[in-house]
Structure prediction request, 416 residues.
Amino acid sequence: MRFFSLFLICYLIFVSQVSLALERAQAREIFLSVWEKVDQSFYDRTFGGVDWVAVKERYQKELSKIKTDSELRSLLNAMLDELGRSHFAVLGADSPNAPSSHRYLGVSLRFLDEKLVISEVKKESPAAKAGIKPGMEILEIETEPLTQVYQRYGFQPKLGKLFQARVAAEILDEMQNPDDGKITLKMAGGSGLFDFPPAPYLGEWGTFTSAGRYRMEFSAWRTSEKVQVIDFNLFVPQLMPRLLEAIATAQKDQLPGLIFDLRGNPGGLAIMASGLIGRLVDQELDLGDMNNPQGNFPFHAFPQPNAYLGPLAVLVDSFSASTSEIFAAALQEHGRARIFGRATTGAVLPSVIEQLPNGDQLQYAIGDFVTDLKKIRLEGKGVTPDTIIPLDPAALRAGRDPAMEAAVRWLLNQKS
Prediction:
């Protein structure tokens, strides 16, 4: 019996060592495949001045410390961040960018310098029922001061809008998945302390390419002045019929104006920008060009029957990215729409997503993007609105939406 016990212990040690060796071999395989894929496909063969080979050597030395998929994902994303470009990331099933969580608060977050502000609260959401209102400032999350939360995520306002958007998504994901089932928030601009549970997300899910499921939100409504507002959170194919129907309704009813609210919309399927703009113009429109070593690939929009040709406005902010930026920039450059809000993220690189051996996904850019008329490289720059509307927490707390109000006023003036 004693011999058998010793044998069993030795066998288990042997199996664990073999398993660890296999895990490390797979981690090395994944690391090399990610590096090589970027090395072969990066649209700028100078890598923007980054020594990509030296980056590989530096991060490869850290592989021996990796024990979990999460740690490997963090290492790979740190390596990809060296490029200083958007649309390079390794996404896991638990990533806020590809959420698996079904928990939901119904709020949007924005940074105002070092303040973290509730910019939107969905009607009938858990946050709304708890009494949280737009414009409130978060001071503590789960009794942890915001300064400590920032330290955990390495947040600094100077690091730019793309980094801020990523941190905001991670903080919101943390808030929606509290350890004890309830989230405790200390707020300024309200009654102080809020303690309530996130609710199961019962809304719709959308997909595009192999990127997994994404929460999908859409609304089409009219202001008291009969201006049509189209508000959606992602460019996903499942929303296209509803988007086209809302545009057609604005045309059929001869409404005095149409607003696309793209605030917080991180993009999605780029070809949808072409399809939507085709329902807003009466002649062919060039949106811009994707450039890579293989050549230039133009984005076109072709006019469609029964297009809405009335006054058009687009709302954007610092978390409007990718396809949202392509859509807004094209309409702005060609004088088809006026843009309201705050400068967009500046994350405008066409990309693809591929599966990795451990189930994670690699997103990588396959080209740069420049606008059609002014040849503006939007990556790192973003779209500057024609009318800049700063984030105003006091106005939000008062139930106002200054960007929406400014857009409606402009549209009615155009019609008159």
